[in-house]
Amino acid sequence: MDEAEEIRKKKLEEMQRRAQEEQQQEQQQYNAELQKQTILRGLLTPDARERLGRVKMARPDFGSQVENLIIQLAQQGRIKQKIDEPTLVGLLKQIQGQVKKDFNIKRL
Questions:
Q1: What does the pLDDT read at residue 97?
Q2: Is 77 left (phi over 0), alpha (psi -120 to 50) or beta?
Q3: What is the model's pLDDT at position 96?
Q4: Domain ranges (residues) in the chain
């Protein structure tokens, strides 16, 4: 009985440790996303933010890629003023042209 109790205690401690680590990781992800949104709020006009939000809803991976690109451009000093909606649309078209995939269907 003593060994079983000790094994249960170790498993419980391990589960608690994992849960705590997961909680910390989730908190870090939340803080990173919050910081990212704060930066984007300063770089985009309200209309551009709304458009980017719609893009993220339709294609989350593409929207995240665009957000990261905008932040990179700002960090490099290549963005001098707030990005408005027409500028964002141009950026989206430019990025979409680079990401576009070609599909070849061959019938046997």
A1: 74
A2: left
A3: 82
A4: 2-98
